[in-house]
Design the sequence.
């Protein structure tokens, strides 16, 4: 049976989900998304910020976004990197993961989207970008991870109105074939293994 989502502090009007919560005498009412998964993720982020900072910070547009509504993807990527560095300091993101994200950004994503206004990028453009990659499906899915994180941040800060990555699916990857030993092979292996390690392999 599928696990039901927790919809606490959420209400739906039409096809849009909203965040509602009274916190320390202040009523918060924020637009989330028409995608339930993104809406619950944003709700969880808002609750985290209220608990830790006493206010919702991430739903305010960055000053650079206010000054320049036509932010380029590369500019948003710089803002995204600063926020992710903060996540590392707060131990919400591993530094090794960030290195992988930076590598994907610099090698694949920025050369393609860096000078494009982020508001002009569509899910179809992401599909076209994927088609240019000559990597394995698993590697391509990994490249999409920082893209998904960036657009989620851009939506939260109202730099873009929609998170287009919600309409971009991961590529299907082939599961490796597993060929377990049969009973006779297991017994032969246990007879041949060093006695010191035999209890370990037996378990």
Sequence:
């Amino acid at each position: 049976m599928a696990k039901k989502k927790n919809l606490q502090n959420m209400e739906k009007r039409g096809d849009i989900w909203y965040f509602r919560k009274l916190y320390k005498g202040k009523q918060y009412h924020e637009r989330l998304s028409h995608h339930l998964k993104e809406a619950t993720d944003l709700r969880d982020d808002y609750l985290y910020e209220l608990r830790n900072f006493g206010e919702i910070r991430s739903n305010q547009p960055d000053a650079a976004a206010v000054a320049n509504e036509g932010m380029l993807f590369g500019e948003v990527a710089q803002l995204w990197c600063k926020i992710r560095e903060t996540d590392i300091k707060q131990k919400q993101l591993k530094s090794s993961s960030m290195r992988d994200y930076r590598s994907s950004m610099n090698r694949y994503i920025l050369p393609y989207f860096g000078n494009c206004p982020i508001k002009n990028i569509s899910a179809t453009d992401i599909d076209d970008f994927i088609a240019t990659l000559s990597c394995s499906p698993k590697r391509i899915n990994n490249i999409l991870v920082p893209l998904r994180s960036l657009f989620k941040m851009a939506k939260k800060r109202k730099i873009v109105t929609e998170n287009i990555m919600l309409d971009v699916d991961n590529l299907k990857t082939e599961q490796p074939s597993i060929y377990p030993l049969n009973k006779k092979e297991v017994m032969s292996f246990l007879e041949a293994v060093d006695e010191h390690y035999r209890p370990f392999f037996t378990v």
